[in-house]
Amino acid sequence: MQRRDFCLGAMGALGAGLMLNKASWAADTYPSRAVRIIVPYAAGGGPDVMVRQFGPKLSATLGQPVVIENKVGAGGVLAAQYVANAAPDGYTALLGSNSHLIQKALQPTLTFDPINDFIPVTVIATSPTVLVVSANSPYHTVQDLIAALRAEPGKLNYASGGIGSGAHLSGATFVTLLKADALHVPFKGSVEIPISLTRGDTDFAFTIAGTAIPQVQGGMLRALAVTSREPMSQLPNIPTLHDILHDDLAIQEFWFGFWLPRNSPAVTVEKLFDATTTALKDPSVKSMLEAAGTRVIQSESPEAFATFVRSENQKWAEIIKLTGATAG
Q: Degrees (nearest 5) of the Cα angle 104, 175, 221?
C-alpha cells in the first residue's frame, strides 16, 4: 500500500509538473493565435470605432489577428461578465473603462468585480463627453439651455446610452450642479442618442467625443460645451463646462483600456502590455484617434494602470453619491 501510494503521489506530481510546464510554454509562446477584444459598446459608437481603428496596428505588433467583438447590454456588464469567466490565457480581453466601475457602484450585487476579477493591462485613451443638441434646437449656447432648464423645471429631458453610462453621469452631474430638474432617458446604446435628438424625442445629451465630433462636423448636432479640462482642438470656440459652472466635478473624461481575466499569466500580461504600448507610439495611431476626439495616453506599467483604476473607483463612487444616480 505504501509503495502504491508513493507511485500515485509521484504520478500526481509528474502530472502537475507537466501541466505547469504546459502553462509556462503557452505563456512563453503567446500569442500563437487570434486575440479577441470584447467591446461593451454598440458597433459604430465612439469606443467601438476607436478600437477598430487601433486593431490593425495592434495586430501588427502582436503578430496575430485581433478580432473585435461587440457584446452590448446592461451598461457594459454583460461583456465584463463574459470576459471575467473566460479562460485566463490572454486570448480574450475586455475593453474596460470607468463605466464598469460605475456599474458596480450602482449595483453592488452584480456578479462581477471590476477590481478583483480582472488584471488591468494598460490604458489606451481618454475622451470627454460633449454637450450636444440637435442642429435645429433653439438652444445655441449653454446659457440658453440653462435658462430653459430653470424656467421650466422638469420639462426638458436628456438622453444617454444607458444607466451608468458616461452620458448619464455627465448629464446627471450637469443637472445636479445647476440644482435643476430634467428627465433622464436611457437608450440601449449611444448610437441611438443622435437619432433621438434629431427626432425631437430628447432635448440634450452628453455624448462621448468620438461619437459627437463627426456628427457635429456633419451638421447633425450642435455642440454647446465639452467636459474636458481644456478646450478641444477638434471643436474650436466650444467652451468647457468647467469654465461655465466653475466646479471641478464638471470635468469628466472617460478612459478605455485592456483588461484580462484574473489569474492570467504575468508573461501574457506583459506581452500584451508591450505590444499595445508599441502600437500606441505609432504617430499614425495618435493622429487617427485624436482626429476623432480621443486623446491617446499610456500606462507606465500594468501595476500603474491598476493603481489608476483603484483611484478612479473612488472618484466615480463620489460622483454617484453626489448625483443620487441609481440603477433603476
A: 95
